[in-house]
Amino acid sequence: MSPAMVVGSGEKGESDTPGNQYQKGVKQLVENGLHTIPKKYILPPSDRPATNSENSNVAKQNLQLPIIDFSELIGPRRPQVLQSLANACERYGFFQLVNHGISDDVISSMRDVSGRFFDLPFEERAKHMTTDMHAPVRYGTSFSQTKDSVFCWRDFLKLLCHPLPDFLPHWPASPLDFRKVVATYSEETKYLFLMLMEAIQESLGIKVEVKKQEEETEGNDNNILKDLEDGSQMMVVNFYPPCPEPDLTLGMPPHSDYGFLTLLLQDQVEGLQIQFQGQWLTVKPINNAFVVNVGDHLEIYSNGKYKSVLHRVIVNAMKKRTSVASLHSLPFNCTVRPSPKLIDEANPKRYADTNFDTFLAYVSTREPKRKEFLDSRKLSST
Ligand SMILES: O=C(O)CCC(=O)C(=O)O
Ligand SMILES: [Fe+2]
To answer: Where is this region: Disordered (predicted)?
Structure first.
């Protein structure tokens, strides 16, 4: 079993070298007071967000992502909603999910406890720093802390969530209600993910016929929902403090997510941008909606029909921003492959089979960039 997200975490050793200071994260840096950002965070001009420059590739208008009303999936409008879901996953790789059934109370408690975790003294948060990528809890900073040559302006807490009873005792015990609140939130997002995957499978035209014998066959498509039930879930709480020079750095560099779907809760502070037709578009926050995106594994499973789209996070000088990403996939020891039901003579297999070990081996040898891992799985014959 392996978490298979980006590599890295806190460095060992307490010497007060500048490098060690950066390992403590950006929240700590900002609290020590600064008016300019250290060199360690300054991106080369071509990688900067370039929001103000003349030849900026940032769209002037905010993106109105497709909005999927989850409540309409149950009822007579299901076929139309499945069509909208298919369009969103093909064209944008992203959509906003409203009326999803997770109560405002569960969501606001999750936001609240995330904020209180990051308000804890550094020493308390630092208890969860580790270089062990298999750890059920990792506190850290940047994107890939051991490999990024330039650090990004984010601190994070990553939690493995499934199966919950195994992981719960490892989660932070402070704030006192942390485990309870996050457990409820993770169970509810897991259920929502499964409901969404059932709809997505149907939108791909994969008929879900429950035939006992077939269900037990390995690699069978009916089984993928069953496998996803036992699948991996990782929660990432991202914290982006105000940044005195936001044009020189990023909260997160362009990347795609590894799993089937990510369910993201962003607050009211803008920052998430997705790549669409060569431009960066800001995703306008909708209160209590989930921003849902296709991950690399769904791109592979759909044989390229649905797209895992590059996204990044910009920071700002005035406001801190918090987001909670819930990443879902198959169990870590399962193979991800294009669905046999989407492959025929006209649609040959476009991706090699893959698994978490391949992914980890890949990212541990280099600085994770853009969609390089997914590109490495593409079969050259197509
Ligand atoms: O903070 C955000 O809006 C995006 C976070 C993200 O892309 C991730 O955690 O993978
Ligand atoms: Fe992401």
So the answer is: 1-21
- What's the angle, vertex CA 185, arms to CA 373 and CA 117, rounded to 5? 85
| Chosen CATH of 20-207+219-377 out of 2.60.120.330, 3.30.70.260, 3.20.20.70, 3.30.70.660 | 2.60.120.330
- Asked whether 100 and 290 are in contact (CB, 8 A), the reply is yes
Which residues, chain by chain, have CB under 5 Å from ion ligand 2? 257
CB-side neighbour CA atoms (13 Å) of 190: 23
pLDDT computed for residue 62 by the predictor = 66
Nearest CA to ligand 1 atom 1: 323
* pLDDT band, very low/low/confident/very high, at 213 (cuts 50, 70, 90): very low
Where in the chain are the domains?
Answer: 20-207+219-377
**238 pocket-lining for ligand 1 (C-beta < 6 Å):** yes
DSSP label at 77? T
